[in-house]
Amino acid sequence: MSKIKSILIPSDFSTCSNNALPYAFDLAKKSDASYCLLNVYTTPLGRLYKSNDKLKLNTLSELKQLSKRANISADKVRLEAVEGNVKKEIAIAATELNASLIVIGTRGKTNDRDIFLGSIAKSLVQNAECPVLSIPDEADFKGISKILYATELKYDETEIVNYIIELAKLYDATVVISHVDQSKETKEWSLDMLKDIVDSTSYSKIEYDEIVNSNIEEGINQTIEKHKPDMLAMTTCTGSLIDSIFHFSLTNRMLMHTNTPLLSFKRTINSTIFLS
User: Fold this and answer.
1) Separation CA 84–CA 196 (nearest Å)
2) How many CA atoms lie less than 13 Å away from 149 in the CB half-sphere?
3) How far apart are the first and last CA of the chain?
4) Does pTM top 0.90 for this prediction?
5) Which class would CATH give 6-136?
6) 145 touches 173 (CB < 8 A)
7) Residues 6+ apart with CB under 8 A from 164
8) If the chain, 276 residues long, is cut into consecutive pieces of 10 residues, what is the mean pLDDT of each piece?
């Protein structure tokens, strides 16, 4: 799965949620993808059945207004207002759409916890069966000129790198494949691996970088500061308890502590393709 064909955009109509729309709509337009704008609502206690219908119609009307910002052909647009559990309904919608990408707004640098979209975004990063693009509320969309992919060099990178390259081509963007090495002794080996990844592609605007830092999170932040990417890409990994905890913990911390949009991929250990 390399090309973006269908984008799911969960929305709760908040400012934070709306900040993700320029990214999602522009990606849909450039990739000629269809998209689904989804709101999952909860009916207040005591509401009558007819009132529920009115609530759904009003919600669809609000989604329609948001969708007008995209200026995309109606046959590429789907609007969904669904009552139920947010996480469950997003998962169902992503499966039904065979989504290539989920784009969701989230909180960036904040001390707040258990914020609706922050909680949902974290859940999607961990569990979604397709890539997830999380847009911090302070991110300012000005196109995408550079994508930084932070890799651990433990698994086959072919499918993820191909996906990132296909996205980069939409914007003629530079791709930087980076690795944080925790010791100088293995730096040359890591550089050889990075070079092999880059050389295996035919994309002209791809490069690699290596930073030595005993703290991986600090190293990634160093790399972000050095390259100032418009998007950071990372993976979550399932397959063993230790790796699962480590990968999700690190990706989750990056999600909460940077204002750079985060593109996350879920994969099993030693897998070469996404779980989709």
Assistant:
1) 47
2) 29
3) 8
4) no
5) alpha beta
6) yes
7) 147, 149, 175, 233, 263
8) 86 92 96 95 62 83 93 91 91 94 78 53 83 92 96 87 96 96 84 94 96 87 93 76 52 70 78 41
Amino acid code (one letter) for 226:
K
Query: Based on the number of CB atoms within 10 Å of its own CB, is 73 exposed (0-12), middle (13-18) or buried (19 or more)?
Result: exposed
Report DSSP letters for the chain, one per residue.
--S--EEEEE--S-HHHHTTHHHHHHHHHHHT-EEEEEEEE-PPTT--HHHHHHHHHHHHHHHHHHHGGG---GGGEEEEEEES-HHHHHHHHHHHHT-SEEEEEE--S-S--S-HHHHHHHHHHHH-SS-EEEEETT-------EEEEE--S-S--HHHHHHHHHHHHHHT-EEEEEEEES-GGGHHHHHHHHHHHHHT---SSEEEEEEE-SSHHHHHHHHHHHH--SEEEEEEEESSHHHHHHHHHHHHHHHHH-SS-EEEEEEETT-SS---
Residues in the chain: 276
Q: Which two tokens stand for residue 127?
A: 């569990």
Please give the Cα distance from 106 to 113 (Å, whole number). Answer: 11
Query: How many Cβ atoms sit within 10 Å of the Cβ of residue 45?
Result: 5
- Strands 77-83 and 34-41 come out as parallel
